[in-house]
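Batch job 17 of 40 flagged for manual review because the log was empty.
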Amino acid sequence: MSEITLTPEMRPLGKSGIMVSPIAWGMWRFAGVTPAEGSALIAAAFAAGVTLFDTADIYGFNGSGGFGDAESLLGQIFTATPGMRDRMVLATKGGITPPVPYDSGRDYLMGALESSLKRLQVEQVDLYQIHRPDILAHPQEVARTLEEMVTSGKVRAVGVSNYTIAQTQALAALLTIPLATVQPEFSPLELEPITNGLLDLAMERDVAVLAWSPLGGGRLGAPEDARSTAVAAALDVVANAAGVSRAAATYAWIMAHPARVIPIVGTQNVARIGEIADVYKVKFTRQTWYDVLVAARGEKLP
């Protein structure tokens, strides 16, 4: 039975013209460490072959304060480490406005971009994504705003996170530039991108898929119910055969989809970041890949 082979070669970020690593590192929990500690985490990601780094203005917010802290920390590190920014594809997001909670109006988003650039201490980000859809923003206004970001030279490519299929299609239809990315939650425990057609839409339109929470919010590392235990067991069959961690096997399962999904690794542990490179040791066959899917579904495929 043929094996599904993963390679570390760079790939296009949709139709943006930007080349990225097949796996990304995320900064959801990046705030709260020292610049030296943060720099060590980034260095570990570089060493593991990561070039795509994902942050957001909301990262660092604890419910009452900390909005922008992850971006500010990264900005401090950029200042202290000349040349680091040039080594990465930098992605950030905006549009969440606690406690409102969302605003994708033109004035708000343009201001949010300026604030992100100031905190990051950069003049441009490579990818800017709407973090969550604002139901009260017309997609025409959102499209014009994203285009303005690109024509200003402050953003190279645009995307969306947590959009429904219909919201994604409406925005893409009104854009005169490519929608480079979509960023859904996707893991062996969160199969909606497979079942709702998002991955099919991404393949049809050549949109890159960035998967957040690829380890199921930690549930695959420490299963607490029958479903996650069954999925973990199916993943361990492949992980043990390759001599890698369950996390590496999970990333590989996500990456094996023909949409060439890019998992966003969220660990803030240097050793676990180092495991990213192990994904290329993992070999799924159709049988073992579907074994994980069947375990996740909790029933046989038709």
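Reviewer: the log was empty due to a logging misconfiguration, but the result itself is present. The chain has eleven helices and twelve strands. Unflagging and moving on to job 18.
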